[in-house]
Amino acid sequence: MKVDLKKSLFILPNLFTLGSVLCGYYAILICSDQPTDDDLYRAALLIIFALFFDTIDGRVARLTRTQTAIGVQLDSLADVISFGVAPAILVYHWSLREMGTAGMLVGFVFVGSGAIRLARFNVTSTGDDGQPHTPGKYTQGLPIPAAAAILISIVVANTLTGKLPFSPIIISVLVVTLSVFMLSSMPFRSFKDLRLSWRTVLFISMALAVTVWIALRYHPSMALVWLLSAYVVIGIVESLFALMARARGAASKAGQGSL
After folding, report:
1. Which run of H or of E encompasses 140?
2. In this structure, which topology does domain 5-195 adopt according to CATH?
3. Cα–Cα distance between 178 and 170 in angstroms, integer?
4. Nearest to residue 30, comparing CAs of 98, 90, 103?
5. Number of helices and strands in the chain (H, E)
6. Domain segments of the chain: what residues?
7. Phi, psi of 187, rounded to the nearest 5 degrees
């Protein structure tokens, strides 16, 4: 029996995607029955592994030129489970449960916002024939893996250091804020078209230097919180610059029209 290796390559990125689903599914199981702090920490680590698989699957698909419409849909469905439902359940048991029904609704807002964001991504990232477009420099709204990673990094850092002053109210505000960012049209860098240049090297060097300093000064887990928070801040700053540029352009056109 001959095996068509070219056709078999299409399975490879989907296997990584299913690996992400497995991690998210297992994290949900761990959190489903009166989880202890150790259980929540294990679940958080599983979601971090899911992030790794999610990062790999798209790059494998592009490297092997096996991007398909099914792959796009499967990736989004996997993200709903691993970075929507799993983190929401984890954060609920870790903090939001103290708020009762309100905490449950806050978690649902995160899941619902992530699902809407992924549905919008699927519509905008595929053509009329269902085939995926080439990834752009920016993506609309905060990606749900990044939003989930911020929450999970806080859980991990708090577990390892016990020094983060996050009350259920602060966590609920953070969850809602991340949900708003996911639903927004704010552009966030996708890093899928990253090219080496002196600016890229300088930016990466500065980020690594600050990350190492935070890891040595405080705790390695705090470095992940810093990196992910910086990603969101960069998106906000770039959006503000874009708004100011559009405002200056509109003012310039208005000035020319009045001449």
Report:
1. strand 138-140
2. Four Helix Bundle (Hemerythrin (Met), subunit A) (1.20.120)
3. 12
4. 90
5. 10, 2
6. 5-195
7. -80, 130
209's tokens? 């230097």
First to last CA, the chain: 78
Query: Lowest mean pLDDT: which of 12-16, 35-39, 149-153?
Result: 12-16
Give the pLDDT score at 3.
45
Q: For the stretch 149-183, what's the b/e string if a residue is b when 16 or more beta carbons lie within 10 angstroms of its beta carbon?
A: bbbbbbbbbbbeeeeeeeebeebbebbeebbebbb
Q: pLDDT of 184-196, one tens digit each?
A: 988 887 766 556 5
Give the position of tokens 């964001």. Answer: 117
> What are the tokens at 230?
């910086």
Contact in structure between 23 and 71 (CB atoms under 8 Å): no
Give CA–CA dist 186/147, Å, rounded. Answer: 14
* pTM for this prediction: 0.83
Torsion from C-alpha of 88, 90, 95, 99, nearest 10 degrees? 50
